[in-house]
Structure formats: structure tokens, C-alpha cells
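Subject: PqqD family protein structure
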Amino acid sequence: MRVRASDISARTIGDETIVLSLSTSKYFTITGVGTRLFELLAEDRSLDDLVGAITSEYDIDADTARRDIEAFLGRLRDAELLH
């Protein structure tokens, strides 16, 4: 999965990313670890890839990371921001 780059405009300032869906004209704000996940999703990544990256970069166990990442990906899917 990856972000629908052709359908969005995004800018990151510090640890906050502002995303505009060009197809729906809706704005989204992503903060903290979500900003890092959004960066990782610029390329095609599996859930396992994302969990591995986040657990190696942040002090979080794999089960918690997986649960939180799945919730984040669900919100991106609901907003139609993922391929």
C-alpha cells in the first residue's frame, strides 16, 4: 500500500503534515508518528514493513505498533488517501 500521491498535496512542517485531498477537497492534519508513517507510505509498503520501521525508530513494542498503524491506515483508507 502507498499514498495516492497523484490525488493529494501535502506539506510537512516539523512533525505535522497537512494533506489536501484533491479529489474530495478535504484537509487532514497528521502529527507525530503519523507523519513518519505518511513519509514511509510514499513508497509501496506492507504492514510488516511499517511495523518494522516504527519499532526500530521509536520506543514501542510490535503489537502496540501494529494495532496503532492498522488504525492509522484505516483512517487513511476511509479518507481515500491510500492505493
